[in-house]
């Protein structure tokens, strides 16, 4: 698969503070990749450097095989607000279309924004979620090959978030490539192919959700049993054992081994469930810190 974003040994310093250090990454055509990190990890700086909004101190960046940014082939949706508040939905969509020699049709952009009934409405009168949907449509106006999305679903209600991710999947089937930052981690795990996790300005993890789960993941076993707690504490691979009125919670990093060890005791075990860490928990394990996670 063709590489469309290539970053090698990129560094950036502000006021003698290193924000990005030796960042290397590659993103293939048609991938949906999430860029995660705690506040201050360097996510926004990396996006700004990729988009040439901020200069890098050193390193190499190629997007679509070129060091010069091909703006006509790039779609960008940042967190900044639309400021043309006395402009209607129709006017701004037509304005954005005029910037590109090969733009998407007005009707298609209106459908993407889900604002068919708001064509003559001023932007100032739109809700926060509607504005974000409109911004998404604007970033697609030129039918870009590579799309950068920074917290795209902030302000959207559940219905519009679901429609947004459906649009992302549809665009991926057409060969579009995405780099996305978001605090809605539960949404990302159903859409994203790979995760890049920034920690202290460096890539601490790069891989699939499955690979992230295998990266020292804790698995939780829950069941009820009259068996003594000490029996489970002594099993290999067990990290913690909690027992509340015969309700057991056991954590392990070796779930397959623990299942085999539990087989002889299954007649005395009821309501057994096995839970893998959520993406939120996996993220915290990699970064070793807190994250302003938003649940659906």
Number of strands: 13
Q: Order of strands across the widest beta sheet?
A: 5-6-7-3-8-9
- Judged by helices, strands and strand pairing, the structural class is alpha/beta
Any low-confidence stretches, pLDDT <50, length ≥5?
A: 290-296
Gyration radius from CA atoms, angstroms: 23 Å
Q: What average pLDDT do the residues reach? A: 89
Number of helices: 10
Number of domains: 2
What is the CATH superfamily label of the largest domain?
P-loop containing nucleotide triphosphate hydrolases
Helix content: 25-40%
Shape: globular
Report the order of strands and helices.
EEEHEEHHHEHEHEEHEHEEHEH
Summarize the main sheet. Answer: 6 strands, mixed
Strand content: 25-35%
The CATH C-level name of the largest domain is Alpha Beta
CATH topology of the largest domain: Rossmann fold
| CATH architecture verdict of the largest domain | 3-Layer(aba) Sandwich
Distance between the termini: 33 Å
Can you give me a brief rundown of this structure?
Pfam families: ABC_tran. With 296 residues, the protein is α/β, with parallel strands linked by helices. The chain is 28% helix and 30% strand.
Write the layout of secondary structure elements.
Blueprint: E1 3-14, E2 17-28, E3 32-37, H1 43-50, E4 58-63, E5 74-77, H2 89-97, H3 106-113, H4 128-139, E6 146-150, H5 158-173, E7 177-181, H6 185-188, E8 194-199, E9 202-207, H7 209-213, E10 219-225, H8 229-233, E11 238-244, E12 247-252, H9 255-262, E13 269-276, H10 279-287
Parallel strand pairs: 3-7, 3-8, 5-6, 6-7
Antiparallel strand pairs: 1-2, 1-4, 8-9, 10-12, 10-13, 11-12
Helix pairs in contact: 3-4
